[in-house]
């Protein structure tokens, strides 16, 4: 009876524990990361008797956690990837809406500006039409400013979000290290602390939503976590931390540092996965190039419009005033260069734009080793050739070309030598859209008239017609004193040689040469006259070449004359205004300097390319979001199919173990009855 009672008690104890484990499963059905637990029973050691070995009951050998490291690792990696894509998508959708919006984008303002120029060109003396040009120019500049401000605000949000995410990473890392310590102590008795293991696994999964991690199991049941390229975030019960703060090169772009003890390492470019990885990837792949592209477009608009206005005359006969502000203003030029916070000198170079049409959308890094400069284009890592790489004296001006000899469109002015190992971040286009402004406020100063004009002598006997001249190469801006100094140039037709003989006014101005002095024409046919007027002046002598082209048609008679002169009173002249209108379709953005105009894109197409690129990336981000979401759902379902609590199954187990419990109690009852019968027999 004692053996039977012991057997019954062992079953009663085992089933009581099984009921407790089943109840534990049921009550944790909604606990994140909880893994279903099962009891594992085994028979006790049997006792030998003459008839053989007789069983002595059951015992619990383990409370087993239903878990697969492979499935959990899939959930972690899928979570990190999905969070990365979601963070990227949420940001790029905002940017896409900003750039492509009919009320928020740049295209409507560009179209309105050139439409106002077209209207003004139809009546160049109309003051209200000119005033509209000024108003639309101001609207265009403000639109550039507004879009740049919105992108800047998004960058600030990313900075704040990176700080918040790093705080969560550090908090979870500390929690995981604490779990490691507790698990190592609890597992010292040879059994697994299931609930602690689940809590740690859930903490690691949550950490994966913020940053991608690599998990390495240790012999003492602890897990080591690594980020980036192998930086140890958690090792046993000790942790390192991530710190986010202003970047060394650009304080407006926060960077991530890995801090372990007294050492610090920048790991921004090494991080991937999770929300932090998605934000960093979006900033480097989309946000920065977009701001640079927008800045390049603003610089090109400002440069092309100002340059063309500088080739014309206003209503007062003066050279046109710039419509937009000077982008090479000293303060703006210095803002394009950021000294690294690690620099030991106070040298502040200035970056001046030399040709806006050939600018790239990349930033550059300039290093100084104490005697030589070296530079790298950050968008593709290409090494730049610097001339001079080792200035003999200061102030010095550095120019930059790539391996193919392509000029980068800017130069760097340095007043004094930096200290050895100083480093500078060069951002030629980053502030272009922020800094553009309309400065002209007098409509009569818009230079719509061409600087020179031609006319036929009223006494000519032939029917030849000379077209209005086009200056194809000239000083920028125009020098009215020089133009008026050699005016008028007389062209006299010689029927014998069939040439137009060019002559300067008498007495001929000093230092002025016309080349060629005679131009061949074919009477009765369309001709194009091309000649150059070279003007040499100053000490030391500087020669300015004015290249001129104009049409000539009809049949001139011998002695017929034509004149080229300074357009002093061209109030109704709209030739320069038409050239301003043509700028809308001129391919003047992203030009290959080795080929020239025609290899770039227009203002509208340049912005359209930017919108298309962002739109394509947005569509790809949405597809990636759907794909990674499906992968995460599948990974979670696979994990849940093994580890999650099934209430129907647990309810069945509850009934089963209850019956086992009742049966074990019945065994005890039988043993008691037998013992009572035996005792009664001896009374």
From TrEMBL:
InterPro entries: Flag_bb_rod_N, Flg_bb/hook_C_dom, FlgK, FlgK_D2-like, FlgK_helical
Single GO term (MF): structural molecule activity
Pfam families with a match to the protein in the record: Flg_bb_rod, Flg_bbr_C, flgK_1st_1, FlgK_D1
UniProt keyword Membrane, yes or no: no
Residue ranges of every copy of the Flagellar hook-associated protein 1 D2-like domain listed in the record: 342-428
Domain Flagellar basal body rod protein N-terminal span(s) in chain numbering: 7-34
Record-stated family: Belongs to the flagella basal body rod proteins family.
Domain Flagellar hook-associated protein FlgK helical as annotated: residue spans: 93-324
Residue stretches making up the Flagellar basal-body/hook protein C-terminal domain: 643-680
Subcellular location per the Swiss-Prot or TrEMBL entry: Bacterial flagellum; Secreted
Any single GO BP term: bacterial-type flagellum assembly
Lineage: Bacteria, Pseudomonadati, Pseudomonadota, Gammaproteobacteria, Pseudomonadales
Annotated keywords: Bacterial flagellum, Cell projection, Cilium, Flagellum, Secreted
Identification of the protein by name: Flagellar hook-associated protein 1
GO cellular component assignments: bacterial-type flagellum hook; extracellular region
Statement: the UniProt record of this protein carries the keyword Iron-sulfur: no
């Amino acid at each position: 009876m004692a053996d039977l009672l012991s057997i019954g008690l062992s079953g009663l104890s085992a089933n009581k524990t099984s009921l407790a484990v089943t109840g534990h499963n049921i009550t944790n059905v909604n606990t994140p990361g909880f893994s279903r637990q099962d009891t594992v029973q085994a028979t006790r050691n049997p006792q030998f008797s003459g008839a053989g070995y007789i069983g002595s009951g059951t015992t619990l050998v383990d409370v087993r956690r239903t878990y697969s490291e492979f499935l959990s690792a899939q959930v972690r990696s899928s979570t990190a990837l999905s969070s990365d894509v979601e963070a990227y998508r949420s940001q790029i959708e905002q940017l896409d809406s900003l750039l492509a919006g009919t009320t928020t984008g740049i295209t409507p303002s560009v179209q309105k500006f050139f439409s106002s120029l077209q209207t003004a060109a139809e009546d160049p003396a109309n003051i209200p039409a000119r005033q509209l040009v000024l108003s639309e120019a101001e609207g265009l500049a403000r639109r550039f400013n507004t879009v740049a401000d919105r992108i800047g605000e998004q960058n600030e949000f990313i900075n704040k979000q990176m700080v918040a995410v790093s705080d969560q990473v550090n908090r979870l890392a500390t929690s995981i290290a604490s779990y490691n310590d507790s698990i190592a102590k609890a597992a010292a008795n040879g059994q697994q602390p299931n609930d602690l293991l689940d809590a740690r696994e859930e903490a690691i999964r949550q950490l994966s939503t913020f940053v991608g991690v690599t998990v390495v199991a240790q012999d003492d049941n602890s897990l080591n976590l690594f980020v980036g390229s192998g930086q140890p975030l958690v090792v046993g019960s000790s942790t390192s931390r991530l710190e986010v703060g202003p970047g060394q090169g650009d304080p407006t772009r926060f960077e991530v540092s890995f801090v372990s003890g007294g050492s610090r390492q920048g790991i921004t470019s090494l991080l991937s996965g999770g929300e932090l990885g998605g934000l960093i990837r979006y900033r480097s792949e989309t946000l920065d190039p977009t701001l640079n592209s927008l800045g390049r477009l603003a610089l090109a608009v400002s440069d092309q419009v100002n340059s063309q206005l500088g080739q014309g005359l206003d209503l007062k006969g003066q050279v046109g005033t710039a419509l937009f502000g000077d982008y090479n203003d000293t303060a703006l030029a210095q803002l394009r260069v950021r000294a690294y916070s690690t620099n030991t000198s106070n040298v502040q170079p200035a970056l001046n734009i030399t040709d806006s049409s050939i600018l790239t959308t990349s930033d550059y890094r300039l290093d100084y080793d104490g005697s030589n400069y070296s530079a790298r284009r950050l968008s593709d890592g290409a090494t730049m050739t610097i001339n001079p790489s080792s200035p003999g004296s200061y102030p010095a001006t550095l120019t930059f070309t790539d391996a193919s000899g392509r000029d980068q469109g800017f130069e760097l002015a340095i007043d004094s030598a930096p200290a050895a190992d100083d480093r500078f971040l060069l951002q030629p286009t980053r502030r272009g859209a922020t800094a553009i402004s309309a400065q002209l406020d007098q409509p009569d100063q818009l230079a719509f008239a061409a600087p020179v004009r031609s006319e036929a002598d009223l006494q000519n006997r032939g029917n030849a017609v000379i077209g209005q001249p086009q200056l194809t190469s000239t000083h920028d801006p125009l020098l009215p004193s020089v133009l008026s100094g050699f005016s008028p140039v007389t062209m006299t037709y010689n029927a014998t040689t069939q040439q137009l003989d060019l002559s300067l006014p008498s007495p001929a101005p000093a230092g002025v040469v016309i080349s060629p002095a005679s131009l061949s024409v074919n009477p009765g046919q369309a001709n194009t006259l091309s000649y150059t007027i070279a003007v040499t002046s100053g000490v030391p002598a500087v020669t300015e070449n004015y290249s001129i082209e104009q049409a000539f048609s009809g049949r001139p008679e011998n002695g017929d004359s034509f004149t080229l002169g300074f357009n002093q009173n061209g109030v109704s002249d709209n030739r320069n205004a038409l050239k301003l209108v043509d700028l809308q379709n001129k391919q003047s953005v992203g030009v290959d300097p080795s080929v020239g105009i025609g290899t770039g894109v227009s203002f509208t197409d340049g912005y359209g390319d930017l919108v298309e690129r962002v739109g394509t990336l947005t569509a790809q981000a949405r597809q990636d979001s759907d794909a990674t979401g499906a992968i995460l759902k599948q990974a979670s379902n696979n994990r849940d199919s093994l580890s999650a609590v099934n209430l129907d199954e647990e309810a069945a187990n509850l009934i089963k173990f209850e019956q086992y419990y009742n049966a074990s109690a019945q065994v005890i009852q039988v043993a008691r009855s037998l013992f009572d019968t035996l005792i009664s027999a001896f009374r």
